What we know:
Elements: E1 16-19, H1 24-41, H2 46-66, E2 70-74, E3 77-80, E4 83-86, E5 90-96, H3 99-106, E6 115-117, E7 125-130, E8 139-143, H4 147-155
Parallel strand pairs: 6-8
Antiparallel strand pairs: 1-2, 2-3, 3-4, 5-7, 7-8
Amino acid sequence: MSEHAPDLSPVTGPAFRERLSPGPGAWCGAVGLGVIVGVTLWPLAHVVAAVVGVVVAAGTLAALVATSPVIEVTDGNLRAGRAQVSVDLLGEVTPMDDAEAMRTALGPALDARAFVCLRAWARTGVQVELQDPLDPTPYWLLSTRRPRELAAALRS
């Protein structure tokens, strides 16, 4: 018989989770790259050109998906790619629902010390202030297609 009582706490998933997967434009670009490589090699050998074109397109698509960061709020932590911070150290959360707000945050308003996790195909995002006295990073600027949902998950 075990001395420890079984853990009966409910298993909960993340409050928010989003993989910043490539959008349709990136998929078309990867396929276009494969076509360009295939057409370039076509005069040398048709079969080789077709195979290399398909491999280049598939490899590019695989690289895009493999390097897509995950934005996640779970177990009291915010994770963006490989970076992670406790939600206890977060301050104000500002969702940026339009591309213009995100463009301003990335341009003239950007602090060089900020942590930035961006993907061009996600045009909206959130700015999350940090209140960690030991960390010189003033805020995180994160791409997300669902800024209001991420902000709500961070506030709860």
